[in-house]
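Margin note: ligand = nicotinamide-adenine-dinucleotide.
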Amino acid sequence: MNNLDPEVAEHPESLVVYGGIGRAARNWACFDAIVRSLQALEENETLLIQSGKPVAVFRTHRDAPRVLLANSNLVPAWANWEHFHELDRRGLMMYGQMTAGSWIYIGSQGIVQGTYETFAECARQHFGGTLQGTITVTAGLGGMGGAQPLAVTMNGGVLIGVEADRSRIEKRIATRYCDVLAETLEAALALAQEARDAGRALSVGLVGNAAEVLPQMLAQGFVPDIVTDQTSAHDPLNGYLPAGCSLEEAARLRAQQPQELVRRAKAGMAVHVEAMLEMQRRGAVAFDYGNNIRQAACDEGVAEAFAIPGFVPAYIRPQFCRGRGPFRWAALSGDPEDIRRTDEAVLQLFPDDEGLHRWIGMARQKIAFQGLPSRICWLGYGERALFGRKINDMVAAGELSAPIVIGRDHLDAGSVASPNRETESMLDGSDAVADWPILNALLNTAAGASWVSLHHGGGVGMGYSIHAGMVVVADGTPEAAERLERVLTTDPGMGVVRHADAGYDLAVETAKTHGIIRPMGEQ
Ligand code: NAD
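Resulting structure:
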């Protein structure tokens, strides 16, 4: 229900949470049946969800997950959008994206620290540690992409975010993620250049189509300092608006000539990536932001598409080696005071972590809650279990007014196989090995997470990823304390061993430091 809160979901009326057509339930009848089943569920029963439809309740045991979810999984030879859409049309499947179908999406905040960390690392590597005095160009200000304006201004920079749907920009402005809306490229450039020259942070949402606007920027001789993209290019039928096409025209084509829409969307992506490559050649720092646009462009004949590096190998992987990733929690009370107290607690637990202190300070000032008050911060192996126990103690002591739900994105250290994104360019070439996320889901189930999910196709689309999610509830009981200790150890532990197994020294060190047993690890 929180996933579908109107403040949280992009299109709640059609059960779409974010990321193209990422849904929380297959249809409204399934939604109602899920709610009924959960209300009747005993504490030793487990509800099974198959692509957004509740299909069974089995007797398990108290420490087992209350819900197990499998979303959008297809046998590999059938794992493409065409087959998926066919099943979707026949009411047999649903696209779960990552946290949409696994019920732990918390609005744009869920991604904003990851986006902030990515731009911060980009600033460290290329701009002396700050984005002040730089202009970033991106596209797509949807559920996740909408975090980009705030992440860039938090790093002191200026952003132009090209977005085809005006209402998306208006939503980002209403939720304080974006500063201003511009109707024309000229207006956006004037605002951006003035702010850059004054050293001021500013985000501008520009109404337009990236496949048209980026070439226009080049034609005018404008080259940004950084260029990236977060349109829903992973889904050419529903997520990428072709050049020269209005939203209404796209809706008509989607219903009547879907193949024509896909063809035009892919052609637009090729033009878009060509423009990104040209900006890169002219000196911009370019990176792919996890929507598989390079693959689509490559398929369309843009041979150099992968000259644009992916953001994980470029900026994030060292964090994964330490089991760090987007840990998040939501206050079931609905009371922002509960999050304020957990903010204090995490700061006290880790007094020497400067990055964490800077992040929580900024998040408190700048992030407006959407739906249930919630927080995200990147924590590593050891830290997550410590903080989870602390939250449970606080619930037990009555310092928090209701239980806290603890979860994470599927984009995490040990829970995803996605060769064009999280596992791009692995040291040992194991990019496409999907045993790891499956082991992650099995292990978190064994450890007693409250709900566990295994999905296909999130982030980068059908055929390109397999990933797992987990959520564990801190209700203040001693049993929850044990479950939290176990799950918040196994889950980031998978990230450490996955990267250690691939040969990353930092992960090997982390495993040794924490005494993680690896039977064939370096002695
Ligand atoms: P979304 O569907 O909510 O938003 C996509 C936005 O792109 C929409 O608002 C749409 O109007 C806009 N758009 C589509 N075509 C356009 C065009 N040609 N020009 C300008 N705007 C256009 O999706 P989201 O949740 O914001 O996710 C965006 C993409 O980023 C997805 O592919 C998703 O898988 C990926 N993603 C990346 C990360 C990450 O950490 N890098 C995390 C989550 C999602």
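The chain has a mean pLDDT of 96.
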